[in-house]
Amino acid sequence: MKLERACARRAFISQSTVAGAVAWTAGNLTGSPGQKADVIKVGLVGCGGRGTGACSQALQADPGARLVAMADVFSDRLEGSLERIKAIPTVAGKIDVPPAKRFVGFDAFDELIDSGVDVVLLATPPHFRPAHLKKAVDAGVHVFAEKPAAVDGPGVRSVLASCKKAKKKSLSVVSGLCLRHSLGFQELVKRLRAGVIGDLLTLQANDYRGPIWYKERQPDWTDMHYQMRNWYYHTWLSGDFNVEQHVHFLDICSWAKGAYPVKAIGMGGRQVRTDKKFGNVFDHHSVVYEYEDGAKLISNTRQMKGCKTGMNAEVQGSAGKARFSEKRNGVTIDAQGKDRWVYRGENNYVYQTEHDKLFASIRTGKAINDGEHMAKSTLLAIMGRMATYTGQEITWEMALHSKETLGPEKYEWGPAPDVQIAMPGLTKFV
Predict the structure, then answer these.
(1) Are residues 118 and 214 in the same domain?
(2) Which of 77, 101, 139, 385 registers the highest number of CB atoms within 10 A of its CB?
């Protein structure tokens, strides 16, 4: 299934939990075969399409999972999500969210955490991810965190610190970088690590898409209402689409390489999405990253109507090439002197698999922590945005230690951050 099609459908897809995903062993939330499972109380934070989909998958991942609280800045989005989840036959009996547990507003997350949950699903615009993750870990709550993990350097540093604390507290933190859960991708990475195509010299991450949704401004909306409703088009909320969406295949490339680049240079801009309704995000980015050993990662992404679409990653080695693609028979290796290898094993639904693993880890008490790669792959994408916005070469250390903090000093339903469109050569690195 193509990633873009999956994104549109995932809130409504029902699948049975993978057989044997939950191991019934000793722990805080355990049961014995044939016995009713102890309840795992789930809180959903961010009730858009991705949050709704993640919630349905979380509830299917464990017999004892129960949705007990929801939070969103908008009440209509929360109520709509709740109705959609209730309409899914496989989870309809696992929902108990009375009005008192439906939290709305900028302080909704704090109220949800204080209400008593075992695991939170973080699916708000990514700007809020670092603060929510920190509060969840401090409260001793397991976390599913959608990608990306942050929108700026200070956010990434916060995520790294929170995940380090989660590890000490034996809390699970599972990332929404779901392609790492693809069985085909895992097999390909295993073979690359075994040296089947030699040293990895050049990697390419491609993400070509068409336009996406936009919500017309309503008469009663303040500037903050408008930006929050159209969060995708505002860099402080989304990180720009090079961060918000393209992070998937950037993550795959550095997973395959087993390292992260040391510097980047690139170009980007607004050629088609020039109307002020599109906020300040670009419509194309092209970045060349360089690894310490001299290998290159070429990153290309655009969102334009009428253009060819497709998403994949390609790897050129010293003794062959490989390809990551979600298309059928799209995971391949062409090694010198050997017949083409094509992955023909089991195809799993990665959005479900990530939740199966999260809830299994909670049951077994064997915590999973995706903190390092979810933070570093997010920084990889931010580093690319910094390069395209400024027109300068950006090093890994510059991006990691950047002092640029995106977003307002306080959140209120009135004014919103100024919409300033980056101009390469004029926009400064901070």
Answers:
(1) no
(2) 385
Structural domain range at position 18:
3-179+352-369
Q: Does 150 share its domain with 287?
A: no
Cα 248 to Cα 146, 252, 381, distances in angstroms: 11, 6, 9
Same domain flag for 166 and 300: no
Indicate whether 35 and 137 sit together in one domain.
yes
Q: What is the mean pLDDT of the chain?
A: 92
Nearest-angstrom CA–CA distance, 349 and 354: 9
Query: Cβ(141)–Cβ(118) under 8 Å?
Result: yes
pLDDT in the model for residue 328: 86
Q: How far lies 425's CA from each of 114, 359, 403, 430, in Å?
A: 46, 47, 19, 14
Neighbours of 258 (CB within 10 A): 11
Q: Report pLDDT digits (tens) over 104-139.
A: 999 999 999 999 999 999 999 999 999 999 999 999
Helices 183-193, 247-257: crossing angle, 10 deg rounding: 30
Residue whose pair of structure tokens reads 């609280």 in the numeric block: 69
Percent of the chain with pLDDT over 90: 90
Predicted local confidence at residue 100, as pLDDT? 98
The answer on 277 and 171 residing in a single domain is no
| Strand order across the beta sheet in which 173-175 lies | 102-104, 65-72, 40-45, 119-122, 142-145, 173-175
* CATH code, domain with 246: 3.30.360.10
Segments in 145-246 forming alpha helices (H): 153-168, 183-193, 223-229, 235-238, 241-244
* Count of CA atoms in the C-beta half-sphere (13 A) of 401: 4
Which tokens hold the place of 104? 């709305």
Residue 265: what are its φ and ψ, rounded to 5°? -145, 145
Number of structural domains (the chain) is 2
> Is residue 95 situated within a structural domain?
yes
Based on the domain organization, do 356 and 262 belong to the same domain? no
Check if the beta carbon of residue 210 is closer than 8 Å to that of residue 303. Answer: yes
Contact (Cβ atoms closer than 8 angstroms) between residue 130 and residue 145: no
- Residues 43 and 113 grouped into a single domain: yes
DSSP 3-state of 390: helix
